[in-house]
Amino acid sequence: MDLHLKDGKAKVTAHLKLLNSIESKFVLSTIVSIEGPLRMKEQYVEGILESPSVVEETIPEQLKGAYGQALTTIQQLPVPVKDAVTSGLRVPLGGTFQRLFMISYLDEEILITRDTAGVPEVLTRIDSPSSSTMPQTNDPNF
């Protein structure tokens, strides 16, 4: 899972893989705001389930027939439906769902948060602090 956090907005990307043959991504867009010195709020704006891609060479032999039937069915769909399937599924969330979390630890490389149930999340910085695409919050220490 990847998280890109910058200027109060976050994009979380979960990479999905099924049967080592079907790959997709779920992308969640959020707005992050500071609620106190150690507390932040995340409001979910939109979720996108990208159309899956299939690596045909890795499909198990017993599933190749079903895969061929699925392809034939998709080819027969009306063009607007086919376009909707290939562009992925967008779910507007409009800030309806949110979560609060507390910052437990923060340094140049690691951010540890806990949600209201106490479940921790450990985030590590991938980009260097001097990179222009580094994850950021409004906290000058991160």
UniProtKB/TrEMBL annotation:
Source species, domain of life: Eukaryota
Name of this protein: Plastid-lipid-associated protein 13
